[in-house]
Amino acid sequence: MQRSHQRPPGRPRVSSEDTPTSDAILQVAANLFMEVGYEAGTIAAVAKQCGVTKATIYYYFPTKADLFTAAVLQLMDTIRRRTERILEQEAPLLDRLRGITTVRLKVQQQHLDFGLIMREAEPTLSAQQLAAMRKAEDEFISTLARAFSEAAASGEIRPVNSVLAAHAFVALLSVSGVRNRNGGIQFPDTDRIVGDLIDLYWHGLTVSEAESEQVFLKRPIH
Asked: How many beta carbons lie within 10 A of that of residue 82, not counting itself?
């Protein structure tokens, strides 16, 4: 009698010519969670968008928390690698930061606030899952911190706490996702907000000598 070679329930066939099924699921899941949030992002919705069954999703990711964690970790790794590529460019640090800001803002303005999504998800996540996300965030901060350290060593910027500088930069980027009372993006003009954020981060609130002179010249004479 011939043995039956049936696949385990839910296990999909994967073509070597296509994106691995697990990776395709994670890409769809990441986009869905970022667009509708953790609560509204269901396994059924992910399965429908992927064109697979819920059993297929559960074959790779036993719980929604597992799927969410894996999707977020993949997304964070993608962001970190894109940031590394920008930072490796032969350009002044200011220009590289502007490039990172442009990419991040265009993505953030299409999605919900990540902090809000995490607050929804956190009660269902294990300590190990939360630790994995913190580790991924630390790796991203370390990537930025190295760039600040190198710029300070070369004299491009003044000596700074590079980790603090990286955290401050990331915190400032989150401002772009602020919503107004109607739920719309508070700062929809991406090009302008990139310039404003970078100028605020790079120059702070200090008025330069040239700007101070312009202000003085514009004062009314009594």
From this structure: 15
**Three-state SS for 162?**
helix
Query: Are residues 163 and 196 in contact, defined by beta-carbon separation less than 8 angstroms?
Result: no
Please tell me the number of Cα atoms within 13 Å of 32 on its side-chain side: 23
The model's pLDDT over 117-145, given as tens digits with 9 standing for 90+, comes to: 999 999 999 999 999 999 999 999 999 99
Q: Is the per-residue pLDDT at 7 higher than 60?
A: no
Question: Whose CA is closest to 185, among 118, 105, 101?
Answer: 105
What would the pLDDT profile of 211-222 be if each residue is shown by its tens digit?
A: 555 544 555 655
Q: What are phi and psi of 40, to 5 degrees?
A: -80, -20
- Residue whose pair of structure tokens reads 């995490």 in the numeric block: 118
Q: How many secondary structure helices (H) and strands (E) does the chain include?
A: 10, 0
> How far is residue 140's CA from residue 100's CA, in Å, rounded to a whole number?
12
- CB within 8 A of 39, min separation 6: which ones? 120
Q: Is 15 left (phi over 0), alpha (psi -120 to 50) or beta?
A: beta
